[in-house]
Specification:
There is one protein chain. The chain is of the alpha/beta class. It has 2 domains: 3-119 and 215-252, Periplasmic binding protein-like II (D-Maltodextrin-Binding Protein, domain 2, 3-Layer(aba) Sandwich), CATH 3.40.190.10; 122-207, 3-Layer(aba) Sandwich (D-Maltodextrin-Binding Protein, domain 2), CATH 3.40.190. 42% of the residues lie in helices and 22% in strands. The chain has a 5-stranded mixed sheet. The protein has a 5-stranded mixed sheet with strand order 10-9-11-8-12. A two-stranded antiparallel ribbon has the order 2-3. A hairpin with a 6-residue loop joins strand 2 and strand 3. The N and C termini lie far apart (80 Å). The structure holds arginine. Arginine is lined by residues 40, 43, 47, 82, 99-102, 147, 150-151, 171, 189.
Length: 255
């Protein structure tokens, strides 16, 4: 009799114990399942703070949240100054960077990139009443505003005869300098420039078509092969099942 009582007791307790361990274990998994994302959230329409809701919004934000959702991970966006964005990734402040970041050879020496998720290029922005600039060569003798450390800066440096390049911590600041007449032009990613022109009609305009070819990628610390593969797999699914096109239409309309 005592033997069977012990067995009965075990029969009751074991499932409870197992369930407890499962919940505790699952909790650990969930805790580790946060995808921390660094982004310079001042780059509409890719990433910006929605003034009504106070939330991070934009194409990149939607895309990375969708990636996270499909990987069963909670996405935490960490607003980060562009200048320190790669050092922050290397230091482990976040797991990935999505920030309209162009895949460049130099950056690829420090970090890994996902497969490209967006094709774009640099354009010149000038004040709406300026008719003197049609192409990069027309920037001879002009002051050009750029966001520091961006491909806009690197592209401006390759244009001969530019009088001066002024570096701003953020793209909105570079565009503000242009609006205020502190610079003659800005060099910016195409769709960001178009959004700026759209948001400030009659103030700024985009000149011509892109004069560089660039692709955005999600940056990841080297050595995180599994995360990289998961992200690439998910990006491919998002493109294949039409979700990408929906996001594109949402943020860029017919552009
Ligand atoms: N595509 C450019 C680059 O990679 C500019 C990106 C700036 N992104 C931002 N969120 N401020 O250099």
């Amino acid at each position: 009799m005592p033997g069977s009582t012990a067995r009965n007791w075990l029969r009751c307790v074991l499932p409870v114990l197992a369930a407890f361990l499962l919940v505790a274990g699952a909790h650990d998994v969930v805790a580790a399942q946060v995808l921390r994302v660094g982004s310079d959230v001042a780059y509409p329409p890719f990433e910006f703070v929605d003034e009504e809701t106070g939330e991070f919004a934009g194409f990149d934000m939607d895309l990375i949240r969708e990636v996270g959702r499909r990987l069963g991970m909670e996405v935490e966006i960490i607003n980060t100054a562009w200048e320190g964005i790669i050092p922050g990734l290397l230091a482990g402040d976040y797991d990935v960077v999505i920030s309209a970041m162009t895949i460049t050879d130099e950056r690829a020496q420090a970090v890994d990139f996902s497969d490209p998720y967006f094709a774009t290029g640099q354009v010149i922005v000038v004040r709406a009443d300026d008719t003197s600039v049609q192409q990069p060569a027309d920037l001879t003798g002009k002051v050009v505003a750029v966001q520091i450390g961006t491909t806009g800066q690197f592209a401006a440096e390759r244009i001969e005869g530019v009088a001066r390049i002024d570096h701003y911590p953020s793209t909105p600041e570079a565009l503000l300098a242009l609006r205020l007449g502190r610079a003659d032009a800005a060099v910016v990613d195409e769709l960001v420039a178009m959004e700026e022109a759209r948001a400030n009609p009659g103030t700024l305009k985009v000149v011509g078509t892109p004069f560089t070819v660039e692709y955005y990628g999600i940056a990841i610390r080297k050595g995180r092969q599994e995360l990289l593969r998961s992200i690439n797999r998910t990006l491919a699914q998002i493109k294949a099942d039409g979700t990408y096109d929906e996001l594109y239409a949402k943020w860029f309309g017919s552009q």
